[in-house]
């Protein structure tokens, strides 16, 4: 996790670029998504509490700066109960301890450990609430729901009678549901929304990409999130999958699972690390993936009124696969890294990512087992 000095420097640079009309490197991905007709993270967050506006109106409002809104984003720490394959030690404590083969993780700090910075955060929040028509706090991690500072912050907001001015957003992997806490937040805050990261709906594949939590737990919690959103009109949730090498061939299972659930899905395609990106797939495998996705778009897709932009982004995956070049070195690095991660987590690509394994060449399968055997020697 970056230091407070690093964070402040980045914010200052972003503000400077926005004021001069330049696209900051940290904002480029959102701009690229909006240019291709997708909803970016910034426009997506607005939709969570401006439900009467269309996606077009949101994009138009952003471009013409009609919204007097402010968001404070907090990554309190890297504390997390999952070690997802697309993650890293900086954003997941469990990933750090798993990858480094340690029983305990000592790479865990949180913002309130720095008292002066914590006090400055509270001062900034008061100022931003006073000067914003729409004020939002977005919390991530690690895992957003297990951040001790989240509960310190919400308690403070309630004590200061600021809670009814705050739209609270939490990024979560869906493995934690706190009935009494979430119920209280719905009553106390202006709105409460959850961005739930679910990358696969196939039980074996889910545990492969979201080690070590089982999909059954996510399934039960999604029902509880749905009930919460139906109970409170100011509560909502949306699904935020990331599609990459290890789950793209399970897209049909994902669509089947969410077919009956009218919930927005705002997906991302991976850009880092390179060896897990879809563009790393061998050309022969790409063609099979393209054929599969094309059939899904034509014959099986989610409620289009909720997920038109999701459909567009899936179509963009086909474009990515067709236009990107293949790098054999990066592909071999994928096989090598996969072999090591499989060993550390006691999983196997041939069992837990079987649909991908089945379309790999014999030489790729041999190379994977070679890498795995090397780890045992």
The helix count comes to 17
Secondary-structure element sequence? HHHHEHHEHEHEHHEEHEHHHHHH
How big a fraction of the residues is strand? 5-15%
The end-to-end distance, rounded to whole angstroms, is 34 Å
CATH class call of the largest domain: Alpha Beta
* Topology-level CATH name of the largest domain: TIM Barrel
Short account of what is shown:
With 377 residues, the chain is α/β, with parallel strands linked by helices.
Describe, in plain words, how this protein is organized in 3D.
The protein has 377 residues and is α/β, with parallel strands linked by helices. Helix content is 52%, strand content 10%. The chain has two domains: 267 residues, TIM Barrel (Alpha-Beta Barrel); 107 residues, no CATH class. The protein is built from 17 helices and seven strands. The strands form two sheets. It has a five-stranded parallel beta sheet, covered by helices on one side. A two-stranded parallel sheet has the order 6-7. Helix 12 packs antiparallel against helix 13. The longest helix has 20 residues.
